[in-house]
Design brief:
The chain is α/β, with parallel strands linked by helices and about 260 residues long. It has a single domain, classed as P-loop containing nucleotide triphosphate hydrolases (Rossmann fold), CATH 3.40.50.300. It contains 10 helices and 10 strands. The protein has helices at about 50-55, 85-90, 105-115, 120-135, 140, 155-165, 185-200, 210-215, 235-240, 245-250, and strands at about 10-20, 20-35, 35-40, 65-75, 75, 90-95, 175, 205, 220-225, 230-235. The strands form 2 sheets. A 6-stranded mixed sheet has the order 6-7-8-3-9-10, with helices on both faces. Strands 2-1-4-5 form a 4-stranded antiparallel sheet, covered by helices on one side. The model has no long low-confidence stretch (mean pLDDT about 95). The structure holds adenosine-5'-diphosphate and magnesium ion. Magnesium ion (MG) binds next to α1. Magnesium ion (MG) binds near residues 48 and 49.
């Protein structure tokens, strides 16, 4: 059964993460709520990317990386070895800072993602491609060029294609690591609007070093500092009435 709006979607319990011997995340505990946007902020190197990557277990590409603690999704610890990573990644999609289209056509990018999930029926594939491209506002721009190489798109369009590719498999949660960092202001505001629309369907986590972006877009904000979670609360309180002095200093630009 799906969680309701505002209910806890991901429950992070005493999560620590080690790059071999280096402990990059220290005992984080937080609840991430359904159909809301959570910003993860903090100075460079504080562990934002590391945290995001725990949620779809990308860290496992390196055998010396290690988790401690739990991340519960529907009561199941997704860090547990018995959880199927391919299925997990279709439930929890991820978009990176630099657009990462596959070296194939626009439609090929989405069809490939669908094929991993076992969807290959031609009509369904075409329907899903159209639906996903419409959702990210690309359909009108590129409907007549679906066979074009994805790298021929602008950076902003590539990022929207990558988001469409992730959405096509209907994830429940989407992770964005500084998704507008490499983009111009117009493409940035298109992506921001898109994420805002998407939250009625999904739970969204976004890493950003842009304080205005966090304040503008997110319902909740988590502030990390040197691998620790200093404060996680409604965005409004983090920015106007933070509990911790460190949070206040960071959001008012005294360091970072
Ligand atoms: N692959 C890695 N191996 C070892 N240490 C890493 C690796 N990636 C990141 N780190 C370290 O982990 C800490 C957190 O990094 P990161 O999560 O990338 O920070 P942020 O995204 O907040 O800038 C930093 O001290 C960084 O140097
Ligand atoms: Mg980072």
């Amino acid at each position: 059964m799906k969680n309701q709006v505002g209910e806890v979607d991901l429950e992070v319990k005493n999560l620590s993460f080690y790059y071999h011997k280096f402990r990059a995340l220290k005992n984080l505990t937080m609840n991430i709520k359904r159909n809301r946007i959570l910003s993860i902020i903090g100075p460079s190197g504080c562990g934002k990317t590391t945290l995001l990557r725990c949620f779809n277990r990308i860290h496992e590409l390196h055998p010396k990386n290690r988790y401690e603690g739990e991340v519960l999704l529907d009561g199941v610890n997704i860090l547990d070895r018995s959880v199927d990573v391919v299925r997990l990644r279709s439930r929890i999609g991820m978009v990176f800072q630099k657009p990462t289209p596959f070296p194939m056509s626009i439609q090929g990018n989405i069809a490939y993602a669908l094929s991993i999930k076992g969807i290959s029926n031609k009509t369904e594939v075409n329907d899903r491609i159209e639906k996903a491209l419409k959702k990210v506002g690309l359909w009108n721009e590129i409907a007549h060029r679906l066979k074009m190489d994805a790298f021929e798109l602008s950076d902003g369009q590539q990022q929207r294609l990558v988001i469409a590719r992730a959405l096509a498999v209907e994830p429940e949660i989407m992770l964005f690591d500084e998704p507008t960092n490499a983009l111009d202001p117009l493409s940035t505001s298109k992506i921001e609007e898109l994420l805002f629309e998407l939250k009625s369907e999904l739970t969204i986590l976004i890493v950003t070093h842009n304080m205005q972006q966090a304040a503008r877009m997110s319902d909740d904000t988590a502030f990390l500092y040197m691998g620790e979670l200093v404060e996680c609360n409604e965005t409004n309180s983090i920015f106007t009435n933070p509990i911790n002095k460190l949070t206040e200093d960071y959001v008012t630009g005294r360091f970072g």
